[in-house]
Structures are given as structure tokens and as C-alpha cells.
Amino acid sequence: MAIATINPATGETIETFTALSEAEIATKLELAQQAFEQYRRVPMQQKSQWMNAAAKILERDKEKFGKLMTLEMGKTVKSAIAEVEKCALVCRYYAERAAEFLADVSVGTDASHSFVRYQPLGIILAVMPWNFPFWQVFRFAAPALMAGNVGLLKHASNVPQCALAIEEIFEEAGFPTGVFQTLLVGSQQVAAIIADPRVKAATLTGSEPAGASLAAAAGKQIKKTVLELGGSDPFIVMPSADIEAAASTAVTARMLCNGQSCIAAKRFIVTEAIAEQFEKLLVAKFAALKVGDPMLPDTDVGPLATPSMLEDIDHQVQECVKVGAKVLIGGQPPAERAGNFYLPTIVSQIPVDAAIAQEEFFGPVALLFRVADLDAAIQLANATPFGLGASIWTQDATERDRAIAEIEAGSVFVNGMVKSDPRLPFGGIKHSGYGRELSIQGIHEFVNVKTVWIK
């Protein structure tokens, strides 16, 4: 894929960029290594000041950065601005908590003194996706930089201006030159970067194939990786739930980032007793969504990021129909609009054993399933290769506790939609990846956990 800004709402190519040469990459790697040798010794208080300064820049220019995201990948501008605000939040969180999270931990042993110390690894490569072009980067960079590491960002090829803007934010905040650099490179250049001995670890948020490729390349070099990959999150609704609240939240949970989110609710699993009521509410709420220009404040659903994304989601819906599913609303691009738009869609009566039911739907398409009871709901929730997040709506304590214990996912939300929060660890199991971001677990992913024993 060419490195370019292409407006997904119009198809217009705004600007193209040339990938870095091998020599240019080598120069940036050397700069990163030199920066690390000095940066690792910077006092925590100084790093905190710089990180808080980054938060202020994000808040100061949130509208500018929000519009840039919308221009490059199509999310609604109101959600893009909220994303920038969330980035400021994670910067402040680690600026305030990193010293506590990385403090020596004394352990009683047969030594005069023994403790655990957390020390930075060095250069960390981050391969990041287009769907949350600021948030995905900052939730890596804030803990990694506060731990004393330096970062190299290989961003998605369709959000190059976002990638460059993030580097500029850290520079303006006062971080030394080379501590955070953007690499405008193609995916075929990643393996060589990982193979460089100065790069100590890598993290990737993206698709299963991308994650497998990165992990294989890093594995050959015996380097650690953290992967956050796809999801097909279940959204279970039980008879005791507040059905109106569940349906309203279901729309928000599915349409997050125009439906292009790993943690968006994708499979709506509803018990028969309330299935008709929930279905009618959901269809009505989908019908009320405004599809249009993502730069307008009243738009609910913008375009998909690329033409190929549009083709993929439409193909998946047609495959559902071929195996006997029923389209309740939507099911096609709007005829009167250019760009990568797809109508909000609900598909029901999908055979649970159909291959298409195992796929992740990355667009504004909800899959609706009816089940007899909680046993069937949990079984269907787990009948997927993914395990990122899950949501259950119930007022019954037994149902709640069973869902928490039995659903195979990195997170379970009760009576709320799945979301990331700097205070909580985030990540998945199964094909959704491994490792954790955010909270104390996130900052510990890329440190040397050093045991010290003194007699």
C-alpha cells in the first residue's frame, strides 16, 4: 500500500509520501540508540514534566488533530476529538503513576537485602493501525517512554500525517531528539528493523496476519512482542436486563469508529424471551443513524477507511445471505454517495456453524443471534477464535458471576460496553493476541524485571 493521505469520504488523494530508504532507517536507528543511552538516565520527575507537557499540547490542539484523523481515516470528527482528549488522559496517568509503578519492590529472603528493580530495555518498535491513529500510539508511548525506553513508530500507511504529528508532539513537549521517531516505511521493511540488534522488543495492534508476521520475525531474533489483534466481541442480553439501555448501548458499541474497532460489539446474542423486543429496538435505532460527512458534528457514521474495507464488509454480508441469513436493515453501500460508505446493517438468522460466523466483521454490521438461555449464550460467545472483550447485560447475580467466570476473553463488562481505560489492563487471549497494555501491567511489559540480592 502506498504511503498516502486519501480522504475516505471522497476518494481524493491529498498527499503522498516516499518510504524511507535503508540508509535513512539506519540513521534513525542510530539516533534512537544514542538517545536511549542518555534518556535512560533522565530523572523520573523530568520525564513526568515532558509527558504532562505532551498532554497539554494534545488538549490545546485537539480540534486540529481530530480533523487530521477524520481526514485520513474517516471517523467522525466528534469521536476523533474525544480520542485526542483520551490521549492526554493516558499521558497524565503515566506521568503521575510511573514512579510508583517502577519503584523497587523489597522481597524478604535470606539476603541482607533483596529487591526487584524495573529497568528500560531500549528501542521498542511499535507497529500501529489506522483505526485509532492517536490513541493506539499514545497508549504504547506513554508507559514506554516513562519507563525510560525510546520508541520507533511504524504507523499504518494511510495515516502518515497523524504519525508525523505525534512525533512533533513529543518534540514540542521537550523530549530529547530521537526518543520518539516516526518511520514512514512499508510493511515489507518491518522484519529488517526488528532484526537490528539495537531494537529490543516490538508491539503491534492490528490484524491476525500482521500479528503473526511480526511475532515470527521477532521470534527468530528472540525478542519480546505484545500483540493486540482482532476481536468478535459478544454482547449478551438476558431477560433481566434493562432492554432499552442495552439496545441504546448496543448501537454505540457497534458503531464505534464507524464499526472499525477490535473491541466493538459484533455478535449480539439475545435470549428468546426478549429477542423480539430487542430486535425491534435495535433496527429502529440503526435506522435513525445519520450516515454522511464525518467532518459534520451531527454525523453518526462516516466512511470506512479504504475501498478494500468497503469491498470486504459487503462481501461478508453477501456471504451471510448465501448461507441463509436475513438482512433486517442496510446490507449495501448508499447508492447516492461517493466514498467508502456502508449503510448500518443488521444480519440475523446466521447459522452458528457457518464459516462466515467465525469471521471478524470490521464495519457497521451487527450479527444478531437468538439463544435459549445463558448456557447457550456462553457457549456461542466462546465459539470463536477470538477472545478480546465481552459484554453481558443482566441484573441477575448468578448470571453475572457465571459470565465473568466462563466467558473466554481478556475483559468482561457487565451492563456496559467494552472500552479501554488507562487504569485497567487491556488485551486479549486466543487469536486476539497476548500481553497487556495500560495500567501497571502495561508499563511492565517492556522493562527488565531485575532481581537484586545483597549479602
UniProtKB/TrEMBL annotation:
It comes from the Bacteria. Its EC number is 1.2.1.16. Keywords: NADP, Oxidoreductase. One of its GO terms (molecular function) is succinate-semialdehyde dehydrogenase (NAD+) activity. This is Aldehyde Dehydrogenase. Residues 3-452 form the Aldehyde dehydrogenase domain. It is an enzyme of class 1 (oxidoreductase). Belongs to the aldehyde dehydrogenase family. Pfam families: Aldedh. PANTHER family: SUCCINATE SEMIALDEHYDE DEHYDROGENASE [NAD(P)+] SAD (PTHR43217).
